[in-house]
Amino acid sequence: MAGYFLVFGPAPDDSVFAETVTGGIPAQTLVRGIRTERLLGTYQPGQPYHLEVSLDKSSGQIAYDLSGANAPPTGDAMFLVEGPALDSDYSDIFSQRIPVHEGHHYNFGGLVKLLTGHSPFKIDVEWLDKQSNHLGYVGNFRPVADLNGWTEVRYQSAAPSRAVWARLLLGASGDDSLLFADPYFAEVANPQRNLVYNSGLTSGVVGWTVFSRHKDKPKRVTATALSIRSVASNTDLPVLLDALKLTLTASSESAEGSSTATLLNYSLSLPPDTAGAFPVDDPHATVLLGVLLLTVMALVAARALGWTQFLVRTMRRPRIGTVTRSLPVNYQRRALYLGALGIISFVVANAFLFGLGNSPFDMADQKTWSYIADKYGPDQLYVLSTVVSQAQVWGGAPYHEAVFPYEAIMAYWFAFIGWAHRIFLNGPGPFVTNTFQVETLIKSLNLLFGVADGVLIYLILKAIRASRNASLVASALFIFNPAVWFSMSVFGANHVLSLFFVLLAILLAEHSHPTGAWLALCVAALTRPQMLVLAFLVAIVLVRRFKFRENLTSLAWALGIMFIVISPIVFKIGPSFPVDFMRNILFVQEFGGNEPAFTTVSLDAYSVWPLVTMFAASQNGLGRMFYPSSAPLIGSLTYQSVGQLLTYGVLTLAAISIFVRSGSHKVPGSYLPGVALGIVGFLMLLTGIGSPHFILALPFILLSRRGISGWVYYSIVVAWTVTTLVPMYGILAIDLASSDYLKLPLFGSNPPAITHLVASLYAWDRFITVGVVANLLALVTYMITAVRRSGPHGPARQQVALTDTSSLRLA
Description:
Blueprint: E1 2-8, E2 15-22, E3 25-26, E4 30-31, E5 34-42, E6 50-56, E7 61-70, E8 78-82, E9 93-95, E10 98-99, E11 105-116, E12 121-128, E13 134-138, E14 151-158, E15 165-172, E16 177-187, E17 208-210, E18 220-221, E19 224-233, H1 238-241, H2 283-316, E20 322-324, H3 329-354, H4 360-376, H5 408-425, H6 436-463, H7 468-479, H8 482-491, H9 495-510, H10 514-525, H11 531-545, H12 548-573, H13 577-590, H14 609-616, E21 632-634, E22 637-638, H15 639-662, H16 672-685, H17 698-703, H18 710-735, H19 753-763, H20 765-787, H21 795-798, E23 807-809
Antiparallel strand pairs: 1-2, 2-5, 3-4, 6-7, 7-19, 8-16, 8-18, 9-15, 9-17, 10-15, 11-14, 11-16, 12-13, 12-15, 20-23, 21-22
Helix pairs in contact: 2-12, 3-6, 3-8, 4-5, 5-6, 6-7, 6-8, 6-9, 8-18, 9-10, 9-11, 10-11, 10-12, 11-15, 11-16, 15-16, 16-20, 18-19, 18-20
């Protein structure tokens, strides 16, 4: 770690110097390391200064510009007094005579600032009688260690017997160079009346003389401008300026005593593409967007009115020949009891998990996003979050910012969380994010979508004519899945929210609602980048399921509605923002735009790459996952490029399978293994995937029951669950091993035995190998299932079961 600092040193020197640090250790600031200093000048405590820090990474330069004035707080002119070691003609400076009354008490002193030196200084009063004869002095030399920038020196004394006059003396000694300002002499009974003539030196040096040479004049100086510029280039600090992410910190320390510093009028200027897209401030573009928005809103409103009238007519139409077959009363009651018991168990168990721990960085991000979206608006998530440090997660070290990597739908989601917290949980006063109430709200909303996903899995299986028992089992395997629980209620991830919309799209497609299916799919695609893969695969289903005209009109309506939804953000940033932002995210995550520390073959997941690095790079343990993806694997091809090629190949195979299977209605749901193949292949073959993303494949593994024998199906579900849960739990256990300050019961330096066990399993070579091989077998299984021909007499056809229906309609 490296740093470049502008340091304001302590008294008495009050020096400003540039400090370069290499090999430092990040804490609240950069500590230890190799330090070099370069003196730039001096500053004046108590004076305001303007500091400008500029960073231009394209030219490889950091610049500090410090400007201000070296003047007393009053801004008056000053005397410059230099001791005899610096000025051979040195003499004290004294004021003209001041009338006094013997026995009266007087205050005297002034403001003093040390420029250089270590010798004593003085502000004295000489008492004189009526004939100006010397009666004595009050005051004496004082050490310059008493000074801290502009320091007020104050004395009090009574005029002695026969004193009629007094005069103030200012002096230095040795190698001192000092500034004296605003000298005063006032009666204690009337402290507001300064008896010193021309104390502010507004009339030059009138009234002031040099003690022994009356023809010499004191050195009067006015406020001197301070202008310091310090520049570090890429050749000076390549370690610092070659890094992708930099932090700007301000810190204060005091070896003894106390020191204070105040930052005022802080402002920040960012590059125009900070949000991932260039903001557009062209009024013509704004007008065109407004016209387009009004047109789309009018069309959607007209369409909605037509839908409403159609529904009203349908509801009024008499139902003829309706026959209903109900389940037995005892069965209904038993199902109701079991369902209620399951829901209660689910809620209680997950609520217990809330307080056991979280992913501190992810949870701190979500709290920050909620605050920003609620206070400043969802569009500011793409700007402000990039400059908010999450230093509290690492005990004060500013390792990373709270960058927002999602599209507009998630921006609205966090705006809703911030609003709900402020209205219902925050109470009176300012919005407080670092509370357990915010975390509870986030995790509780995750639970709702977790249950909703399970319900959608059940309804999809029923729609493709799976048996009731098979549908219930698959739904329960998701709702009560320990990996899903850990993701929602401990880790705090919200993948279940993204899954809800893609599952809803599939269900609506099965029930022949193309507009709703396309709309749900568009929403899913604008939640997180990984959902683009699922959106692509399910879009093939919709294209094959519905006629060309249906798809064209439905997709048009869906895009129109989505344009209305995201228009507040688009208007504030730019028309092409959704595309530009997604392009920027893909560049950062997959095409070399991220930090080297984060471009690893795996972020913590049991993908194929920990197995490859064991053989190709002789890695072991966690090194198998955190090996650089930019390293060459085959000739000039890196791990990352090979992973991309393999992923493209599997997605192409999955797309072909889905395209072929979706065109046939003989085997309902026959396209689902192709969807499972696509998402499993994406997670297993692409580099840089994290373990929480493996939750995205679980619903499609559960939905792909047909064509897979029972023991293979359940083995895949169990293996995928274990290889998702252990890395999620294990990486937190390892990363938080020394984070006792976070007060997380599951994690820290003294965690429970289960955490020790999971951390050991997660990093154990044999367990990693077994986990990767198990996931690879799942990938191979879905590859075979997706490409295997299923006809009227094939295994997929044999497993079709007629769905029990609650009602039959007779024409």
